[in-house]
Amino acid sequence: MSDGAAAGSAVRGAADTIVAIATPTGRGALSVLRVSGPRAHEIGRAMMSRWPSHPRQAVLSDVHDSAGVTLDQVVVVRYDAPASFTGEDSIEISTHGGLVVPTTVVAAAIEQGARLALPGEFTRRAVLNGKLDVLQAEATADLIAAGSRAAQRVALQQLDGGLSRRIAALRDQVIAIEALIAYDIDFPEEDDGPIAPERTLAALEALEGAVGGLLATARGGELVREGALVVLAGAPNVGKSSLFNALIGRSRAIVTAIPGTTRDALEAVIDAESWPIRLVDTAGLRATNDPVERLGIEVSESYVRRAAAVLCCGEDKEGLRAALHATRAALGERSPDEPPIVLVGTKCDLPGPRPDVATLGKELGAAAWLDVSAETGAGVQKLLNVVGDLLTRQAGAPELDAPLLTQARHQHAVAKALGELHDFRRAWRDESLPATIAAVHLHAAAEALRDLIGGVDVENVLDEVFRRFCVGK
Length: 473
Ligand code: GDP
Prior knowledge:
The protein is an alpha/beta fold. It is 48% helix and 14% strand. It starts with a helix and ends in a 7-residue tail after the last helix. The strands form two sheets. A six-stranded mixed sheet has the order 3-4-5-2-1-6. It has a six-stranded mixed sheet with strand order 8-9-7-10-11-12, sandwiched between helices. The chain has helices spanning 3-13, 40-47, 101-111, 121-128, 134-145, 149-159, 162-186, 197-215, 218-226, 240-248, 291-306, 317-331, 357-364, 380-395, 408-430, 435-453, 459-466, and strands spanning 18-21, 30-36, 58-64, 70-79, 90-96, 115-116, 228-233, 266-270, 277-281, 309-314, 341-345, 368-371. It is built from 17 helices and twelve strands. It binds guanosine-5'-diphosphate (GDP). Residues 236-242, 255-257, 262, 284, 346-347, 349-350, 373-375 line the site of guanosine-5'-diphosphate (GDP).
């Protein structure tokens, strides 16, 4: 049985009580444990020397195991159903941190009859008890995983129900059109039904426009959530790792003068002005017979193929030209829709003649060009600005306060709804199908939107959503 299926069947009755540590394990001042389910209070009372007399009251208490051995001094808060995160009776225990204390308190709760929670099980219960919809549950995971302020802002908006309200409003519009059609179906004999077809058509066109507009936010949503993949390409030793460090503003890459030492890709998310950037430093691109180095280069090539922009680095004209050719070779089939390529002349602090990046950039059809020095920082901020502008040219300016589709699941559902609306319009306008049959497409569009928020049959959707959750959430 998969984890998801196990969690699903465990929750349906919600007969059992679950426990988990909600904070990361390791040394820290505090750790928070959650217990939720019908026996949460009974279990809590059995473990605590003092018990809160009111819901949401925080009480300092000793906690002990079933043999009466004191494990820690904790703060316990009691939540009464349905006014809790999960909608069930629950408690939150703040223990001291570290590896041992929280684990022994979890073990004590298990001794009293709790079961260790599965990943995402607390949030799953919140969804099944109507405290959150599926989009909001996804947003909690996104908020935890947020790698940039932009991703944080979008996830918070989604948690607040912004996307859910937008989807629900679109679904209401589909249902309104279904009603107009149903009215027509009820009066089949009349030459001119009581609803003018132009009115239905206008409502349908407006709706298609709105659904299409939402679908168009998917590219921006992906860029915000994942960060735009920006890849450093070029031969070993041209200064990619140093530039990577200069761009992220701290030393995370190993910088070395021996060619070919950055074998694996290093990633960092930069909280840039416009779009968050997922910067990747790779082994570089060049022909080699060394099988180990070849593996690293294959990794680089696969990043280049998925890139939103590529920074082709070189110290001189030949290096820049080679970096660009290697990038285009790595792009292979993606060549026709090549990501913007920036020619980056590195080490511009060094004395001696500089390559003319502008002339070369124009000649080679690069999207932008500039000189940088990781050593002095010259051009580094400008490079970030150039990349931000190129991304905005691709995806439009980030609109972080409007609902965005941030996941493939959202994109598929909204694309399905739009496809069904198109199919309906074609069938209905051409009268190729009886209105009753054509209306099936409207119904399917409404269903696709409902599934996104979480309709009646949410178990499958939940299994998919909660696969990415951590235990304790
Ligand atoms: P990579 O193999 O392309 O990642 O190159 P590295 O970042 O490891 O740099 C190779 C060598 O060039 C190292 O000795 C760096 O110190 C040096 N280097 C990198 N960037 C600069 C720069 O902007 N100015 C100068 N003078 N040296 C640099």
